[in-house]
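Journal club side-thread
Mid-discussion, someone asked how the predicted structure for our own chain would compare to the paper's figures. Pasting it here so we can look after the session.
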Amino acid sequence: MVAAGWPGVDPEWSRTVDVLSTSGTDQPGTVRRWHLLDNGDQLSRLDLTPASTLLCVHGNPTWSYLWRTLLAAGSDPAHPWRVIAADQLDMGYSERTGTFRRLADRISDLGDLTEALGLEGPVVTVGHDWGGVISLGWALAHPQQLAGVVLTNTAVHQPSGSVIPPALQLALHPAVHKWGTTTSDAFLRVTHALAHPPLPSDVRKAYMAPYRGAHRRGGVGNFVADIPVDASHPSFAALTGVAEGLRGLTVPALMLWGPRDPIFSDRYLKDLLSRLPHADVHRFEGAGHLVAEDRDIAAPVFQWLAELLTESTPASDGQRSEGVSEPTNFRPLWDLLEQQAAGPGGAETAVAEMAPDGTVARSLSWQQLDRNIRDLAAGLGETGVKKGSRVSLMVPPGVDLTVALYACLRLGAVVVVADAGLGTKGLSRAVKGATPDFLIGIDKALAAASVLGWPGRRISVRDLAAARRRALGVETSLAALARQGQGASQEPPSYAPGPDAPAAVLFTSGSTGPAKGVLYTHRQLAAMRDTVAETFGIRPGARLVAGFAPFALLGPALGAVSVTPDMDVTAPRTLTARALADAAAAIDATVVFASPAALRNVLATRDSLSRAGQQALGKVELLLSAGAPVPEPLLAEVQRLLPQASLHTPYGMTEALPVTDISLEQIQAADADAAAGTVPGAGNGVCVGRPVHGARVAAVPLAADGTAPGSQPVTDAGVTGEILVSAPHVKEAYDRLWLTQAESAGIPGWHRTGDVGHFDAAGRLWVEGRLAHVVTAPAAAVTPVAAEQAIERLDSVRLAAITGVGPAGTQAVVAVVETVPPVRKAGPAEPQLAGQVRRAARDAGVDVSAVLAVPAQPTDIRHNAKIDRTRLSRWATRVLAGGRPGTP
């Protein structure tokens, strides 16, 4: 052994120990030599008392080297833990026994080792790959010593009727097995190639070192051969025993997962969660099988361990709640819907959707809507949807989605909503990460599910021909389930979920990284309804046009008539003035929800409005526009189109919608205060007003390096910081993103939004951009919005983005502008425009180092309004380094 040649390993950790073996494969009294990486002696030499012990078990074909970052972290005097990472027998630098050791033997072997070490506990096990099963087997056999379990990509059960992963099928094939795993080092090389990014050469060599020569790789081949592919395998009973034993394991658990794993995919994570439902989970997007190499797992593990030492009980459902105390007068989301159906107006229209010719394509009365929801809920229940089932809804806003959503919620199922605006890649990542049990979709979504391998039993919206149903793997349809559920006179008690039961996983837009699933409970969804109703005065009987997908489903919850206009909701800019007017006329609308991108196109197509259309829009009393900042000039134009409407632009996010509210008149007053300089703190951003009903807002001051490291919320005028919100309708947690959730809830009682802004002396909030987009220039951190607004006032600029280029702390400020008319090619702006942009930015207090022009800004495809500044930064870096501009 040459420990000094293993990057990241302190030679003092490496040692061997002789262990009396009790495994059935060994003769009584046999002694086996184990190799360990163990920091226990080092901690003792430094007079450090460990908080407890981590027992780390590697899989195949790695060795204890996999856990070197945990050893380093455990050796930190600030939080010492003893970390024992053992090389399993026949693996790493432990003894080559010459015997075939099966799963039960390896669990027994590990017990022999811990007994020889005198390990008393408390112990937290850590396992990866097949080491995960072995570590769990030890945990179940040593309940008195066990304090918790940590797992990285592993599996404890192979679902019946499904095949094992293709990579393992190949490794087990008789023609490949011995050559691939033992005779050659192919299995090792293929496994190491699963790292993202690729392993550095010295790390790869360290992983290969103990397996040089076929005589050193027998354990690798035997490990593969011991995979229980079915019930006839000798290790099937041992694996089943571990899998079923987990259902009674109540100690805290943490799962750190690489979704980009061709072996242990998300379906195995889903199975583990069914057995350990209380577990904390974090999925590292982009990471794969070797998640301990792909990402820093030491930091989250030791953060979790610190909480483990301070918490007396694990959090319910693996989530840690945040926000203020909740009211007890809970009314489910469908409460007003039922009241409307039972009231005197029950026969009147409740939901409708428009056809391209301007007529109503479909509609349901309140009574019909309530009956259809009950029928579908009964049908879904009979087909297997139950409390806690995850149901992915891939249905455009309208009648079908409304019925399906409320039917699922009434059953206690968890609806998963990730719209097509995420794009194929983003949508696929979201659906696979949520691992739904059922997928309800239109033909296009079902076809994508077949091609891309999305999980879930498939249900079509419409009845399909038998051949089409077989081709798409569809079991039934909403129409068939509704017919099946007709006549159900009474719902069983199981149809009523509790207020704190999970209700929905809603995905963010993905404009600042991979879309995140946001978990809401029934109580929080109901609080969102109540906040919207109280803030904007929307009462039962209101009539709204839902041109913005997030609000399309709130109509029935508010007791309001709702209509979906003729548009592609995944592309908001497809809403035309005529389509908006037709929808408004169809229900005599009083409220309109529309995104800024939709409003731009409405204004661009207003010349097509008929007199009747103008009259219909003239009756609108309230316009809400959310999803991205709305410039005052745009709102002023909209005001002329909707002369009687009060125009409001609520600020919020998927995690808390809404947070603040402001009207057009209030925006104009705030801008006037900023121009006059009469109100301290006014200006330098977009004014989004004051907190909505039931919400509190504060900020954590921004440091010079562009971070918000503090923990003390402030509301002082002019202090820029990360915006915090506390409200009954704030999310429960990020779904399967424990680390992200812990960061967002790092200040008790508050959600960290990731936005930056400040208050003025009048108590109004001004948003200055995203924390991730703050430019760390040498003089100070630069927030982007104020300079962008100043640049966009130039007649020659349609949209502007401020981004940073260079190392953190020394970044150059770069302005990227979309011009009017558009430039033909992206690249450095012509001198006259560049000078105008620099002067405008300087007036806003920002010195711009370079100005680049693009034909069109890259925007997120959900809102068509949020500029992808991270993408622009990468592009600008390439251009300024002399690369070909191309398209950002």
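Post-session note: The chain has five domains: 3-314, 366-497, 537-649, 657-730+740-773, 775-880.
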